[in-house]
Prior knowledge:
By secondary structure, the protein is an alpha/beta fold. It is about 35% helix and about 20% strand. The model is unreliable at about 5-25 and about 30-35 (pLDDT under 50).
Amino acid sequence: MRSAGTRIVGALAGSLVLGACVGANPLSTASSATDDATAVESATADAQTQSPAARPAPAGTFDGARALEHLKRQVAFGPRPSGSAPLKATREYILAQLKGAGVATRQDAFVARTPAGEVSMANVVATIPGRRPDRIVIASHFDTKIARDFKFVGANDGASSTAMLLELARVLQGPPRDFTIELLFLDGEEAVNWDWQGADNTYGSRHYVEAAQKAGTLTGVKALILLDMIGDRDLLVRRDSNSTPWLVDLVWAAAARAGHRATFSNELTTVEDDHVPFVRAGVPSVDIIDLDNPTWHTAQDDLEHVSVRSLQIVGDVVLAALPDIERRLAGQR
């Protein structure tokens, strides 16, 4: 993602090719392949034996501590850029957790054309059926930025919002809601090059929108709630000018009712993120993000700089806003 300030959002159109996840990854990090493989193997075994599913929690109640455990499991895989073995292990962890929660899940594989060549990617789509097929999508990217000069584990940028979706998968199980809830785990949000420019970003979200447009299913997406970088210790979420105003208003009103006015600021910012392809396609969207923090894309985006309280606040706000969003959408029919 990028904070655009007062700048106009740049063009995000780019070439994506449908296909299977095959071929070697042209991207590399500072870690050796052997070290990566060892770390992934160890973290995978650890994740299987220390799943947050073992921690009891009340049904229907968001548990920030459980979300934090999901976050830690992802960080244990190490840097997770698109096409890498650690990201594949992360995807497998996501799929296993969703299966354990009883949520129907599918992978959507594609090949993205990037400045480094073709890279195999795959989104994960989880569906919790509602009383009507129209969908509210709650999304997060799960890849991390490629950093060749330092180890970037993305505890906040990538892991925090993905952890929240996994906890929401547990919480949202139960009596059907009015609308179907789709939990969308997006690959390829980060730019392959260091700078966010042109079409070198948002590969997964652009693929999702383009594929849904071709299939005629995008009209069923009635709203998008995008989560990104919501776990930092000094959380401050500003209103994004690229988001849909009525949807922002509902989320911020829910935050105010929950006593979180200090966290959900009325200060305006402009962010380029995975919601932009949806907005351009006519889908009402809101980006819940704290982009203005000093750990962004640094080695300090680690476990020491995330907070269970921040995860709890955003989880509670999203759950509080959902009924209001559903009522608004139902009234538009």
